[in-house]
Amino acid sequence: xxxxxxxxxxxxxxxxxxxxxxxxxxxxxxxxxxxxxxxxxxxxxxxxxxxxxxxxxxxxxxxxxxxxxxxxxxxxxxxxxxxxxxxxxxxxxxxxxxxxxxxxxxxxxxxxxxxxxxxxxxxxxxxxxxxxxxxxxxxxxxxxxxxxxxxxxxxxxxxxxxxxxxxxxxxxxxxxxxxxxxxxxxxxxxxxxxxxxxxxxxxxxxxxxxxxxxxxxxxxxxxxxxxxxxxxxxxxxxxxxxxxxxxxxxxxxxxxxxxxxxxxxxxxxxxxxxxxxxxxxxxxxxxxxxxxxxxxxxxxxxxxxxxxxxxxxxxxxxxxxxxxxxxxxxxxxxxxxxxxxxxxxxxxxxxxxxxxxxxxxxx
Length: 363
Known about the structure:
The chain is of the alpha+beta class. It has three domains: 7-49 and 140-234, Gyrase A, domain 2 (2-Layer Sandwich), CATH 3.30.1360.120; 52-136, 2-Layer Sandwich (Alpha-Beta Plaits), CATH 3.30.70.1400; 282-363, Elongation Factor Tu (Ef-tu), domain 3. The chain contains eight helices and 19 strands. Strands 10-11-12-9-3-13 form a six-stranded mixed sheet, with helices on both faces. A six-stranded antiparallel β-barrel has the order 14-17-16-15-18-19. A five-stranded antiparallel sheet has the order 5-6-7-4-8, with helices on one face. A hairpin with a 2-residue loop joins strand 1 and strand 2. Helix 2 (32-41) crosses helix 7. The protein is globular.
């Protein structure tokens, strides 16, 4: 089981540790609901060092990233990040990821922890015909997500960089807590605002200690994987392996907004996905809110009002903010319209739910 540079910190703070994507990771500390609410109201910090980081560099770097991803890399300027996905050539998704542009020949790809090996092989296979310089830096980089409405205020005490001047999905390199060359990215997986910090492993523990010392007046608490999952689900953010995978297309998954058919953007599966956009798909990923009392979970069947099977839930929980059951799931397109009433089968009971607009939680 791999560890991160923060593993000892988690243990010292009483985290419940679990195996996740080959790593020993904190599931929770004080409790899921408390950690969730603290991120929504104050500021929390997540260890996300298990994520993968690949550099694509050189004269062919742009060609590789443009061919491999559905979004339009040509739209990126230096200091910008982009959410995108890797289509698999069969209409499915290899992974979803972030692309950071440092320069016209310098891109950082941040991929999901469970997919590091798979993604690396996929990109290396594509690159055999393109010739970019690829570097898997996953084991050298630590990452912390500092999330919540007080994240900017807290981090500003540790850096001279003007954090309020970094728009959403932009980044800068800055000295933070006396550590040079920290990548400070205005991104996150919680919908609560904040930053993701990428730092060399050798300085990671130092950054953690500085954050918690500076964070005392701001209510900073550590948060684990469980709260990260409930936070992302309240925002309707996809989780790879649950809501999207090798069998789901971006057009089915509501990711048409990161699938750009602009001139010259000849990514893998473009033709197939363009056809899906024009013709529509048999099913759609939708947000479902429970009308009856019940907690929806992944794998539960979705039925039409007359009891016909029409889909399945891919993620579900009790929303700590809304105090009701919420879920993501694929339903037949006929039942995907907002406001449509459906049934969710929970432990043998058929309970009412409705299709709602995402996100579930709006600050």
